[in-house]
Design goal:
The chain is mostly helical and about 350 residues long. It folds into 2 domains: about 1-45; about 85-345, MetI-like (MetI-like fold, Orthogonal Bundle). Helix content is about 70%, strand content about 0%. Strands 1-2 form a two-stranded antiparallel ribbon. α1 (about 5-55) runs antiparallel to α15, α4 packs across α9 and α12 (about 270-285) packs antiparallel against α15 (about 320-345). It is globular, with a radius of gyration of 29 Å. The mean pLDDT is about 85.
Length: about 350
């Protein structure tokens, strides 16, 4: 038997195997495509098509129950009306103040709880579950509970009398503590005049720039709800830091406070960045907690863009203004999320 007669059958078998492998890969690609096709169609229709429709409506004349899809002239008229509304100006102010307070409280409280648990204190596993429990509740439940807690007549104000604080204030001739909480329309630290010296247009705003007192209870309630999630993220990040790193810092003479301040917390920077993005995303689109706790509040002191869009859409039937508000929210959230996703994909 010659060598060629042996090689020819082997070559035929190899070619056949290659063809079967190609057919299998082709079939596998089609199977994957067919499995993903329903999800792809659903995303295109219920996400991108609806976003495109909302953007179109935001430029239209549709402001009554009667559908009117003609474009308004000038094309940016709806957005000009939106930003000229005192209510929407208050919404932007409230969102900025709420975001700063909510993120600051959540990160500080979550990091503090994580440090306590990292110290392996007695009952750490029990308290870990206790601290994380609020995150399991819905914002609606939290809103109802905190609305009662900050009721001026039956909430935390009662403690000022029970603990004798108001009695002591009366003895020294001071007024008793009885804050209005979410019912107080006062705006403190007004900035219109100061900003007007730098930006002339700020003095002409129809809303007082500052800190609405009524937004403070909302920020406290939201921080209470999310601080457990922040704690869990930080605890997970601390678990990845080896004991050798801590020991090296201690050998160099660092105290426990300095170990956390100069070593552990800086090493948690990636966790902090992720938390900032997630908390920003939550604060910019928050609706249910504010709606159940205070609604739009006195003088729109706790109103937020999501409540504005809801009421413009389903109560006032100003569909073009509601769509413009929704597009504004989409752009703001996109400015936060898209750079973070792009950075993560680039690193990946």
């Amino acid at each position: 038997m010659s060598t060629s007669t042996v090689i020819e059958p082997e070559a035929e078998i190899s070619a056949s195997a290659i063809q079967r492998s190609k057919r299998f890969r082709l079939t596998d690609r089609w199977r994957s495509f067919l499995l993903l096709l329903p999800s792809f169609i659903a995303v295109v229709i219920f996400v991108y098509a609806f976003i495109s429709f909302t953007i179109y409506v935001s430029f239209s004349n549709w402001r009554t129950l009667r559908t009117d899809m003609t474009l308004r002239q000038p094309i940016t008229a709806n957005y000009e009306d939106l930003f000229a509304m005192p209510r929407f100006q208050a919404d932007i102010r409230n969102t900025l103040i709420f975001t700063v307070m909510f993120m600051g409280l959540s990160l500080a409280l979550g990091l503090g709880l994580a440090v306590l648990l990292d110290r392996n204190l007695f009952g750490g596993s029990f308290f870990r579950n206790v601290f994380l429990f609020p995150y399991a509740l819905s914002f609606v439940v939290s809103g109802v509970a905190w609305r009662w807690l900050f009721n001026p007549e039956s909430g935390v104000n009662v403690l000022f009398d029970v603990l004798g604080i108001n009695g002591l204030l009366a003895q020294v001739g001071a007024a008793p503590l009885h804050p209005g909480w979410a019912t107080d329309p006062t705006v403190i630290l007004k900035l219109n005049h100061a900003l007007g010296l730098i930006f002339p247009g700020a003095a002409k705003l129809q809303v007082q720039l500052g800190i609405p007192v009524a937004i403070i209870p909302v920020a406290i309630a939201a921080s209470w709800q999310l601080s457990g999630f922040v704690m869990a993220m930080y605890v997970g990040g601390m678990a990845t830091i080896s004991e050798e790193v801590r020991e090296a810092a201690r050998i160099d003479g660092a105290s426990e406070w300095q170990v956390y301040k100069n070593v552990i917390v800086p090493m948690l920077a990636p966790v902090t960045i992720s938390l900032v993005v997630l908390l920003l995303h939550t604060s910019l689109k928050i609706f249910d907690l504010v709606y159940t706790m205070t609604g739009s509040g006195p003088g729109f002191a706790t109103d937020v863009p999501a409540i504005f869009v809801f009421e413009m859409m389903f109560k006032a039937t100003r569909y073009n203004l509601a769509s413009a508000g929704a597009v504004f929210m989409l752009i703001v959230v996109g400015c936060v999320v898209i750079p973070y996703l792009a950075s993560s994909l680039k690193k990946g």
